[in-house]
Write a structure and sequence with these properties.
By secondary structure, the chain is mostly helical. It has one domain. The radius of gyration is 16 Å and the shape is elongated.
Length: about 120
């Protein structure tokens, strides 16, 4: 997750920071906080859903040879699964990491948001 965060800095620099920097310099204004947050979440949503749907791997997952797949079929996750996973990963992380700690007790070592979304992480060989 730390490596994913580092890679996201580059993605966010281009798709989030640069447009808002241009708005600030060109029109001497800043968008209100809720719009900034909405833009940030849309960028993150687009990044994760795009990569999860196209091969099941984000840039960091490719490096670590981990792939996301449907727990039922073993195929690429569906759009609804990717959206549910994205939405559920935030409380999983921010509620003191409870959804991550869940994996310690899960029989298949899956995170809570994966269990609820019908997805699973698998190691590639």
């Amino acid at each position: 997750m730390l490596y994913e965060s580092l890679l996201l800095l580059g993605v966010l620099s281009i798709s989030f920071m640069l447009p808002h920097l241009a708005i600030g310099l060109g029109w001497h204004m800043t968008l209100p906080g809720p719009l900034l947050l909405a833009h940030l979440l849309l960028v993150l949503l687009a990044y994760f859903v795009w990569f999860w749907r196209r091969g099941g791997q984000t840039l960091a997952m490719q490096t670590w040879k981990v792939r996301l797949e449907s727990a039922l079929t073993g195929n690429t996750v569906t759009l609804p699964q990717a959206l549910v996973r994205f939405v559920l990963c935030w409380p999983s992380l921010f509620f003191f990491g409870a959804g991550l700690i869940w994996a310690v007790f899960d029989r298949e070592r899956q995170f809570l948001h994966d269990r609820l979304a019908g997805t699973r992480l698998v190691a590639e060989h």
